[in-house]
Amino acid sequence: MFKRALQKYAKYSYFLAIGLFYSQFASSADINLVIEDQHGQKLSGAVVELINASTHSASKTLPLAVMDQVHKQFLPELLVVQQGQQVNFPNSDNIRHHVYSFSQAKPFQLRLYSGQPKEPITFNQQGVVVLGCNIHDSMVGYIYVASSESVYKSDKKGMVSLTLGTLPAQVSVWHPLQTAPLENKKIITINSQKQLVVTVNTSSPAPRNTFGSKFKVGND
Known about the structure:
Elements: H1 2-27, E1 29-36, E2 47-50, E3 65-66, E4 68-70, E5 73-75, E6 78-82, E7 85-88, E8 97-101, E9 108-113, E10 121-123, E11 127-133, E12 140-146, E13 151-153, E14 159-164, E15 169-174, E16 186-190, E17 196-199
Parallel strand pairs: 1-17, 3-7, 6-12
Antiparallel strand pairs: 1-14, 2-13, 2-15, 4-5, 7-10, 8-9, 8-11, 11-12, 15-16
């Protein structure tokens, strides 16, 4: 009788394990988000962040990120980093720049310099940091400081592919050209595995200047 009960328990445990295994996969969901503007044009460079997702461990070493300056432009124009990550700001131009930000998430300035700054900048607070150059007003860049490890940028087709543990789930959507205040994020609730189109109202980017090589070292 004991042997029979043991066999019955083993069989029950086996099917329970199988059920848990498949339920784990059944609860996950693959979602495609398509980000577009108010005219139906696909938006690349939109940042999608999973809300209430896991954050990186304080003991985990984050790589040094780089925001370069090339041809009087920030490169990349949009950089996504994690809270606590350091960013280096090399100046690859043959002119000097004065990088600064007044954003609440990280006000700072790197006074007039060329080449490498003395040390990287640490971004500890989540949010959007707008970058400028005190010498060249047309230079504008963005650093998105994410609180979650689950953060993505839309591709040229405006597409972001997500794998979510459970539904419903919430994500935030942000774009540097949005007409809403730059510190605002659009909150989207995902209830099904259907492809979801998200509309972000945008404005046209500001025109760049055309002063060419006027700003050489000694004249900037």
